[in-house]
Design goal:
Structural class: alpha/beta
Largest sheet: 6 strands, mixed
Number of strands: 8
Radius of gyration: 18 Å
Distance between the termini: 13 Å
Low-confidence stretches: none
Helix content: 40-55%
Order of helices and strands: EHEHHHHHHHHEEEEHEEH
Length: 272
């Protein structure tokens, strides 16, 4: 059993990838702001904080925006990390927006995500007490969130965030009688970033352009959405990546992906 990202790590894509990043239309968004060159917090932490704070600033409930962090804290406590839930909730209550203190608390809070996403790696990962963003990092995060808000003012509104691929019939328990929705026994977890009216979006904050692993992740999400039967995925016709660090948008119409490629990913990667 694997998450979407773990499954991608386990497979060998054809040369160039199932979907070549060069197939995406590239759109530059220039705000004239130059980011600080150094950050003292891991890029994965920055990425999650930008994602969750963007959701919060766009109107999401704070518990929904940071739900993975809370789930992670609950798992951490169940695995012997005492007071994790209280610590996480105290940090959550210290997040109000984009002020410096909120950014610091958000950076500390998302360190609990690893307990949900990768429990095996959680024991060796830096915890909340070791995560202390400096002024340059805080300023960069604030800029990245502002860019993300500007992005959605152009490409939004958001119709769903933090989406999963459970069966459309919520009355039917997941995996009952083999009904995994968009999941399978091979790929049994994974959650996406944002949906707008016709586009499935993934946020990246790396310094590099999208790679084939990122484009495969997007297509897997789209396929899983179709298999879930959930209504919100039926109108999705485009795949998109937004990188606020590069301030670049990458877009691809699903109709430009061959039926053969989709079938191979369904059968050999997700394993329906």
């Amino acid at each position: 059993m694997s998450s979407v990202t773990s499954r991608i790590n386990d497979i060998q894509q054809p040369k160039g990838g199932y979907i070549k990043p060069s197939e995406f239309e590239v759109i530059e968004m220039n705000d004239g702001v130059v980011l600080n060159p150094e950050e003292n917090v891991h890029s994965s932490i920055v990425g999650m904080v930008v994602d969750y704070l963007t959701r919060l600033c766009m109107g999401a409930d704070i518990f929904d925006a940071f739900k993975i962090s809370i789930y992670g804290a609950e798992l951490a406590e169940n695995l012997g990390r005492k007071k994790s839930v209280k610590i996480a909730r105290d940090l959550l209550m210290g997040i109000e927006g984009l002020d410096d203190a909120s950014v610091v608390n958000a950076c500390k809070l998302v360190t609990f995500d690893v307990w949900y996403r990768n429990p095996m790696g959680a024991m060796s990962a830096k915890g909340y007490s070791e995560t202390n963003p400096d002024a340059s990092t805080i300023q960069n995060i604030q800029t990245l969130v502002k860019r993300s808000i500007s992005f959605f003012e152009k490409y939004g509104p958001i119709t769903s965030d933090g989406f999963t691929f459970e069966p459309a019939d919520k009355k039917q328990k997941r995996k009952k009688k083999g009904n995994y929705g968009g999941y399978t026994p091979v790929v049994d977890s994974g959650d996406g970033d944002f949906l707008t009216e016709d586009t499935l979006w993934d946020f990246k904050v790396s310094k590099s352009k999208p790679r084939s692993r990122h484009t495969l992740q997007l297509l897997m999400y789209w396929i899983m959405g179709q298999h879930s039967g959930q209504e919100k995925f039926k109108k999705i016709t485009r795949l998109g990546i937004f990188n606020p660090r590069l301030n670049m948008v990458y877009l691809l119409d699903v109709k430009n992906v061959s039926e053969e490629t989709i079938k191979v990913i369904e059968e050999d990667v997700i394993c329906y």
